[in-house]
Write a structure and sequence with these properties.
Layout: H1 8-19, H2 23-41, E1 45-48, E2 52-59, E3 62-65, E4 72-75, E5 78-85, H3 87-93
Antiparallel strand pairs: 1-2, 2-5, 3-4
Helix pairs in contact: 1-2
């Protein structure tokens, strides 16, 4: 049975067991992959062929409200990441 949330530690253990690499080497591979993805996402758009694409979305400042106290506060402008899965992966998931 699989967990709903996969941690980086789980990825490292799985990679290590599948490849026979040490846990330290597997952790370094995962960390390097994450750093590479972050580097390319900062360029505004990153497409991993046959996996999906990442895109930065710039959100504007807005007024938020605490639903419990109804107190208003300002939400600062920020960047978020959008991921769109490739058609190839969607086809594999849907059979």
């Amino acid at each position: 049975m699989f967990k709903n949330n996969l941690t980086k530690k789980d990825l490292v253990k799985d990679l290590s067991s599948r490849t026979g690499y040490s846990l330290n080497f597997s952790k370094k591979l995962i960390d390097d992959l994450i750093e590479i993805i972050i580097h390319y996402i900062k360029e505004d758009y990153f497409n991993l062929k046959n996996i999906g694409s990442f895109k930065i979305i710039n959100k504007k400042a807005r007024i938020g409200r605490n639903p419990k106290t109804k107190k208003e506060f300002s939400i600062l402008p920020r960047k978020t990441i959008s991921f769109v899965t490739s058609k190839k992966i969607l086809d594999k998931l849907n059979g």
